[in-house]
Amino acid sequence: MAxxxxxxxxxxxxxxxxxxxxxxxxxxxxxxxxSSQRFVRNFNSNxxxxxxxxxxxxxxxxxxxxxxxxxxxxxxxxxxTQPAPNIExxxxxxxxxxxxxxxxxxxxxxxxxxxxxxxGEEKTIVSSKITVLPRIEGISCPLTLDGPGLxxxxxxxxxxxxxxxxxxxxxxxxLPSPPTTAFTxxxxxxxxxxxxxxxEGLYKSSGNFCTQCEAEGFRRITFYQDRPDIMAKYTCRIxxxxxxxxxxxxNGNLMEKGDLEGGKHYALWEDPFKKPCxxxxxVAGQLESRxxxxxxxSGREVLLRIWTPAQDLPKTAHAMYSLxxxxxxxxxxxxxxxxxxxxxxxxxxxxxxxxxxNKSLNIFNSKxxxxxxxxxxxxxxxxxxxxxxxxxxxxxxxxRVTCRDWFQLSLKEGLTVFRDQEFSSDxxxxxxxxxxxxxxxxxxxxxxxxxxxAHPVRPHSYIKMDNFYTGWSSVSLFLSLEFFLYIYFFFxxxxxxxxMSTDS
Length: 504
Ligand SMILES: [Zn+2]
Known about the structure:
This protein has helices spanning 36-55, 57-71, 87-90, 317-334, 378-393, 409-427, 430-449, 473-476, 481-503; strands spanning 98-99, 108-118, 124-134, 143-146, 151-157, 160-161, 167-168, 172-175, 183-191, 201-205, 208-212, 231-241, 247-250, 253-259, 264-276, 282-285, 288-295, 301-308, 342-348, 355-356, 361-365, 461-462. It is of the alpha+beta class and 504 residues long. An eight-stranded mixed sheet has the order 6-5-9-3-2-12-15-14, with no helix packed on it. It has a five-stranded mixed sheet with strand order 17-18-19-21-20, with helices on one face. Strands 10-11-16-13 form a four-stranded antiparallel sheet, with no helix packed on it. Mean pLDDT is 82; it is low at 5-61, 63-91 and 472-481. The longest helix has 23 residues, at 481-503. The protein has nine helices and 22 strands. Residues 1-2, 390, 394, 413, 416 line the site of zinc ion.
């Protein structure tokens, strides 16, 4: 995910040329627990280390991984996620502090999730059918689902409608004693996207339906274990008025589409890869697309589509150029090939998160996609190149290899920032880009680092995870042990996934 950029007026960045400028999603400062002075020293040290490292990118990474392998025996990496929801706590509306040390593995995993959306002007009906797998068969534990403020219509277990065998409060739906072996959970909820002003979950803006689920927006769509270590394969069927919402998009590949009675139509999407729910996305509205193709190094043709309101379409040429450049660069430099036959980008003016890497359906604020020579500066072009690359690179670093918990947020962001900085450097001038990086760090990071808003890169607790999307995780992470471990584990998992895909 990337926050929306607010350009710095009068900064040196605007005086620089297009080539070598950086991606601009690091807009707000993030602080680490060092003092500013100590951070300056560390940062300068990081810079020299980083420059050396990037110059030897391939060989350096291998060297780095060897070092991690040798030392991993004596290292411990504390990881955690949300603790199991407490039914007592959920009765209270006061925010709860989540502690790293309280991590517990989930008692239930979700294997597949079939979603069905009936989009309407007054209300939207969301039906989910989830295959639930107990972590340990034969032991019955409560299954608690997140769902603040959701209206429950019905709930079924293995096809049987539940009347009393569940607990519902303002934040959670709990099954006190679900089956002790695999079972099917069907839940129907009613939501009101047109009234959703939080812009988390499913909301409606300028006539279009749009989602934002990172970090904890999916729980506002349907009852769910909304935590990144719950990974499932999704299908998504969308039904809506054809005139008002001619375009229906979700993750993965389009399996079916067609017309229905009453002026409606539908689309059925299937994402073949497991993902956490924060990567789910849905878009429905009046959009048009710029289409292109990219042939991967293995010879597979990928359809690329950038969707915008009709009047914005002429301004998407640079974004398409950036996407194709990013896809090619990731193959050449990191050996990572795109893994589906379709890649969609949606750019709408009302998306408040800046940009979001939903699997195969990236959603952007228009500011980070649209450019024309009449209205865009060199810095705007550079920013688009960087942020399009950033969200695309998440396809592997963040999506296919993802976080187990939100305390690991800085790992997926740090590695992906590193990758997009390398991309922008290779596309332009490496020294100029580093100067721009440092200028931003000094302008944003240091003041926050010296303020009451200072916080560690990896916090020990949080109340609302959204507060940690403050951007400058990139440079400050280069000496982080977890960052190196993430790179190590990324390549371990990537090799496993690659081997599985080539075996099948
Ligand atoms: Zn990101």
